[in-house]
Amino acid sequence: MEPEQSAAILKQLKLKVTPRRQEIMNCLGREQSYLSADEVWERIKPRLGSIGLPTVYRILDELAEAGVITRIFLSDRKQNYFLCANQEGHHHHFVCESCRRVEDVEQCGLEGVSRDIARRSGGRVTSHILQINGICGSCCQGHAGAAP
Amino acid sequence: MEPEQSAAILKQLKLKVTPRRQEIMNCLGREQSYLSADEVWERIKPRLGSIGLPTVYRILDELAEAGVITRIFLSDRKQNYFLCANQEGHHHHFVCESCRRVEDVEQCGLEGVSRDIARRSGGRVTSHILQINGICGSCCQGHAGAAP
DNA sequence: CTAGGTGCAAACTATTTGCAGGCGG
DNA sequence: CCGCCTGCAAATAGTTTGCACCTAG
């Protein structure tokens, strides 16, 4: 992710463009997989001289609320975040349990579900969580993958 | 949920049929909505005389791992659990953000997604998370609903 | 009887908060 | 220069663990 791109996103969110925010977006943008708050922290510390872990939490939370980054659900007790290169269009993610790689999943049958809920019980859908877990192509093909 | 039913489920999981386990299943079975560990604890304490919170955590975790109860994802920091009356067939849940009611969602377009992932990248889907959030029919119709 | 189940107390750890100072617009 | 941003230290709270005792099968 280019600096101008992260700056543009931050401006659009009416957040100040600060080195910390940009560095966190750059850090996540460099990865093909998700990271936890402390993993992000370890990676950007050397680049920034110093940064507090609470700042990392605050920024990750802001970006996740804004929808710029996605929360990945795992059985560990941590929150994990992924910055998708594809910021356009509604889609979801396929998460490899072996190598932590995240791939896009375009298909999402949720429009039908929303219609069903409205029709059947008069309810209204405001959001949904969809995450596909599995083993990615390269891990299936004998690459053992880096086990967590 | 009847005692024989909970006993049968526990036997099938090769877990001993104990009063604590049955009471937790009964407690969740009585609800139309999800509960957190401490909420379950508060409700079953008077019925059992005494029970430790760690026991509640252990049992909820066992049941969730076994697929008997479903974890509900919320922005609070807690794990929330729901025991679905419908234990048959693959389905998901519609969670009302206003009154916490949970309804079944039969439709799930995931077979197609699995096929796509296998075809495109050679990956394999092992599990998925799908939860629909919104406002249920009765909350939409002016019933303000018990706000959390 | 014996392995699994449970209570209790204590530990753990991810995450949050308060406040003083810093810096982007 | 104003108000958001950040560091630091400390608190918070949900969840887990260790171990001795208990009970279902």
Could you please say which CATH topology of the largest domain in chain A applies here? Arc Repressor Mutant, subunit A
Q: Which pair has the most extensive contact?
A: A-B, 35 and 35 residues
Question: What's the SSE pattern of chain A?
Answer: HHEHHEEEEHEH
Count of distinct structural domains of chain A: 2
Tell me what the structure shows:
The structure is a homodimer. In chain A, the strands form 2 sheets. In chain A, strands 1-3-2 form a 3-stranded antiparallel sheet. A 3-stranded mixed sheet of chain A has the order 5-4-6. The model of chain A has no long low-confidence stretch (mean pLDDT about 95). Chain A has helices spanning about 5-10, 20-30, 35-50, 55-65, 110-120, 135-140, and strands at about 35, 70, 80, 90-95, 100-105, 125-135. Chain A is globular. In chain A, strand 2 and strand 3 (about 80) form a beta hairpin. Chain A is of the alpha+beta class and about 150 residues long. The relative contact order of chain A is 0.13. The interface between A and B is medium-sized, with 35 and 35 residues. The first copy, chain A, binds a DNA duplex (25 and 25 nucleotides) through helix 4.
What's the short version?
The structure is a homodimer of 148-residue chains. The two termini of chain A are 26 Å apart.
Descriptive key words:
homodimer, 148 residues, alpha+beta, Arc Repressor Mutant, subunit A, Dna Ligase, domain 1, 2 domains, 3-stranded antiparallel sheet, 43% helix, DNA-binding
